[in-house]
Amino acid sequence: MAEQPSKRIIPVTDQRSGSLGVPATALNAQALLPASGLLQDARGRVLRDLRISVTDRCNFRCSYCMPKDVFTKDYPYLPHSSLLTFEEITRIARQFVAHGVTKIRLTGGEPLLRKNLEILIEQLSALRTPDGNALDLTLTTNGSLLTRKAEALRAAGLKRLTVSLDGLDDAVFRAMNDVDFPVRDVLDGIEAAQTAGLGPIKVNMVVKRGTNDQQILPMARHFKGSGIVLRFIEYMDVGATNGWRMDDVLPSADVIRLLQQELPLIPLEASQPGETAQRWGYADASGQHDKAAGEIGVISSVTQAFCSDCNRARMSTEGQLYLCLFASQGYNLRDLVRGDHSDEEIASAIAHIWQGRKDRYSELRSAEGPAPAGSGKRRVEMSYIGG
User: How many domains does the chain have?
Assistant: First the structure.
């Protein structure tokens, strides 16, 4: 059974508050930066991946993301008028694609709670890169609505998706989602997604020591040979409401050691630049990768920083652009898209913002350790900009 959350002080500051203005020079007619398909930040990292939150709401109350004692029935979610419309999201996304973005991931909260999301997917799936290629369009979901949504998502143009699933034991899973949602319904949703032709499907398991780490081997056994890639994620110090402690982190190296006691693994090459997951393939009797058995991945968000080649930008559901998952403030793009600004000006703003990016939170944490509680350092919540 999962551990009960300890009593703690909940910050009352709205983590969404405060945004940075777009650099003034970005909109100057003499300083406009046109899209060239290749945009680098101050550390030479190329922009390739855009993650778009479409809602700040979720029907789960996982302790590491939207704990129930913070996100109560009285929590002040964003009003609908504050959210970007699908047309506004698509307009901004088009400028990112012109700058070289090839992958767009829709996140939340729980993105499938956004009404008529299929319309947005259809609009985004029509975008093309400067060389005429379709985008890698994907989505992260808790799987609770997949059974009835999977076919419509595929028909709208979604190519693949990632499902968050933190255990197979029903009691553990119900305790972790904290709304008594059964694991069988998520597994049915995954099967529905496979039947609809969405793939490859990935399953993400956030591992919290002493809470669901006993589910690592059962999860691996279940998904081995299924065509689904299982990834284990270290419990991250995102935001200020999840009560994160280093003691709760089970390092990815320990996860691999545990798996290899029963399931031999061999390291695989990264699938693409900026890949956050380290890939491990199931080995056959000769020590080679058994492709039929598949692979797993580990995302070492805490113990192994991957800032050096991070190519991801994140946009909140109200149009705040964040350059790091651990950022405290975003840049307000909503005012641009709702104001009297051209596509060229919006593209220039994105270019100026990305070119000034120096973020490397995880590297600094590795060197200095996480900021102590009460230090006053605030970070945006994962539920607001997605993972």
Answer: 1
